[in-house]
């Protein structure tokens, strides 16, 4: 009888411990943005992908296909924002920082734009919808699975004529821009790819003669996950005039910011 009571006590304790662990994990995920991202990206997304036999990006495309108004960029953006804020977090620039992006594009009124990091095409749509006739956007994405999804979403938005998606790594594509894509210099560059590439790609843009006096760079996620080498480089460089725009990580309350750097030549 004593053995049975001991076993029962262990089982009850284990059960209570498991419940407390689950509750603690839930509270951590709910109240900590870092834990929330970890849970969504590395746990929940993997499970959902396995069960549904499709990627999160494909589910975003499905949502746009079913709910957005074809040929209406605002409808597509709204659809993606709703899906990513209510269903699955995704690394788009998002609606809050998207307004900063909009403002800068409108101020510059660029003719030729380079985006590094296409993902599902959200920021490409935000930029392209504001471009004047005959202006063009070149957007670079190295992930072969994202490219067709972004292409279809951009097509649904009715902006395929303004956007050229280039599949490849930024360090390989940048040196080809002048010869292969007939780019003289860039009016605007939006950096939203691997954060470790922000600094070396900025240097590469300079070395390739793609920046002219007045060219504007805008970098996303300079606080989270952060791009310290890029910030150190441009803020200590007399060739750049920098402005920081405090904001929040897309679809979350976590502090983030964007950095604008005007090339002074």
UniProtKB/TrEMBL annotation:
The record's catalysed reaction(s) read: a catechol + S-adenosyl-L-methionine = a guaiacol + S-adenosyl-L-homocysteine + H(+)
Per the UniProt entry, the Enzyme Commission number(s) are: 2.1.1.6
Q: How is the cofactor bound?
A: Binds 1 Mg(2+) ion per subunit.
Sorted alphabetically, the Gene Ontology cellular component annotations on this record are:
axon; dendrite; membrane
Q: Where are the transmembrane segments?
A: 6-29
Residue positions binding S-adenosyl-L-methionine:
93, 123, 141, 168-171, 192
* Cofactor(s) in the UniProt record: Mg(2+)
GO molecular function list:
catechol O-methyltransferase activity; magnesium ion binding
Q: What does this protein do?
A: Catalyzes the O-methylation, and thereby the inactivation, of catecholamine neurotransmitters and catechol hormones.
Q: Which family does it belong to?
A: Belongs to the class I-like SAM-binding methyltransferase superfamily. Cation-dependent O-methyltransferase family.
Q: What is this protein called?
A: Catechol O-methyltransferase
Originating species: Varanus komodoensis
Q: By which gene is this protein encoded?
A: COMT
């Amino acid at each position: 009888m004593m053995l049975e009571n001991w076993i029962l006590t262990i089982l009850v304790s284990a059960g209570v411990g498991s419940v407390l662990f689950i509750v603690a994990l839930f509270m951590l995920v709910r109240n900590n943005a870092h834990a929330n991202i970890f849970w969504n990206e590395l746990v929940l997304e993997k499970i959902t992908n396995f069960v549904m036999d499709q990627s999160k990006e494909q589910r975003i495309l499905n949502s746009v296909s079913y709910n957005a108004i074809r040929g209406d960029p605002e409808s597509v953006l709204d659809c993606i924002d709703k899906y990513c804020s209510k269903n699955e977090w995704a690394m788009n620039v998002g609606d809050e920082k998207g307004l900063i992006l909009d403002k800068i594009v409108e101020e510059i009124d660029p003719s030729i734009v380079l985006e590094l990091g296409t993902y599902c095409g959200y920021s490409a749509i935000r930029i392209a919808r504001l471009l004047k006739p005959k202006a063009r956007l070149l957007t670079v994405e190295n992930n072969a699975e994202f490219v067709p999804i972004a292409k279809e979403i951009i097509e649904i938005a009715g902006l395929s004529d303004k956007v050229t998606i280039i599949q490849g790594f930024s360090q390989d594509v940048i040196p080809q821009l002048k010869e292969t894509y007939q780019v003289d210099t860039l009016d605007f560059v939006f950096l939203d790819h691997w954060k470790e590439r922000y600094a070396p790609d900025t240097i590469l843009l300079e070395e390739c003669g793609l920046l002219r006096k007045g060219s504007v760079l805008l970098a996303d996620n300079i606080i989270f996950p952060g791009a310290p080498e890029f910030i150190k480089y441009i803020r200590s460089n007399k060739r750049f005039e920098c402005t920081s725009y405090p904001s929040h990580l897309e679809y979350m309350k976590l502090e983030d910011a964007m950095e604008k750097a005007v090339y002074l030549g």
